[in-house]
Specification:
It is built from twelve helices and five strands. It is of the alpha/beta class. A five-stranded mixed β-sheet has the order 3-2-1-4-5, with helices on both faces. It is elongated, with a radius of gyration of 30 Å.
């Protein structure tokens, strides 16, 4: 200390003059990164798990986890890490393994899911959720709505399970509705495996892609729709014809329900969900 070295003062006297504790005088200084290492690790883990959270959300979560750090200290580290600046919040997709596209010999082994989009005559866009059984290529449902979030997907699947039974697996792409925690939890509770295809590889979900092509050519590209109810009605009629009457090339020129009938097949399946 300057006072001790230049003015020949005792450590006690010098610390009293500058109001500095003797313990701090004798304690070796620590590098900022070393002193705040635990705070840095906790903040980085919190932001990685919850990338859209701001400072106060992160801080309160850390307090609930048992960390007793003062908010001023946490905010200082938060700003030093530049977490207060705009940051990317999109998550990277996990690495997906190539899923073999085997044709199952039984029903309810694998269901394939996919979304399509189009627009009404007035310009308003709508979406469709298409689900088929890969065992006989039967279309289980075409659900039409302006918005189809993950919870609606789950409601549709609940109705299908109640009607046809539980599938062993779901094959789908990596859309936000299909990688949601809610859908993963729903599948886990029912013992359903989730087969996510590799990004940019629609050929790994070829059965539903072929179904989508037929639906696009026969319905979406063939009509001008005035309302969402009209789309749903025409889609339901087309799906019944597709399953019961239309010959399928890969099934030996017979319809799906003829190729592999479903026990106690219901004549009509209604999916009354609000649009």
């Amino acid at each position: 200390m300057f006072l001790v070295a230049e003015h020949k003062l005792s450590v006690l006297r010098a610390c009293a003059i500058v109001r500095f504790s003797r313990a701090a005088y004798y304690r070796a200084p620590r590098a900022p990164l070393e002193a705040d290492a635990e705070v840095i690790m906790a903040l980085q883990a919190m932001v990685e798990k919850h990338p859209r959270h701001g400072f106060w959300k992160c801080y309160r979560r850390m307090r609930r986890q048992g960390h007793a750090w003062n908010h001023k200290r946490v905010h200082r580290v938060y700003c030093a890490l530049k977490l207060n600046l705009p940051r990317r919040t999109k998550r990277r997709l996990p690495t997906r393994l190539r899923q073999p596209l085997d044709a199952p010999a039984t029903l309810n082994t694998v269901w394939a899911l996919d979304f399509m989009s189009d627009a009404l005559y007035g310009g308003r866009k709508f979406r469709t959720l298409n689900i088929i059984d890969e065992g006989n290529r039967e279309g289980l449902v075409i659900d039409v709505a302006f918005s189809i979030p993950s919870m609606r997907v789950i409601r549709v699947l609940d109705q299908l399970v109640a009607t046809y039974g539980r599938p062993g697996a779901l094959r789908m792409d990596n859309g936000p509705e299909l990688i949601s925690e809610a859908l993963a939890e729903w599948c886990g509770q029912r013992g359903i495996t989730m087969h996510h295809i590799q990004p940019g590889k629609p050929d790994q979900n070829a059965c539903i892609e072929r179904f989508n092509r037929s639906y696009r050519e026969d319905v979406l590209d063939a009509y001008l729709f005035g309302s969402i109810e009209e789309v749903q009605s025409i889609s339901d009629d087309w799906l019944e014809d597709y399953n019961s009457e239309r010959p399928h090339d890969s099934l030996g020129q017979v319809p799906p329900r003829t190729f592999l009938p479903r026990p106690n097949q219901p004549r009509e399946s209604s999916f009354e969900l609000s649009t």
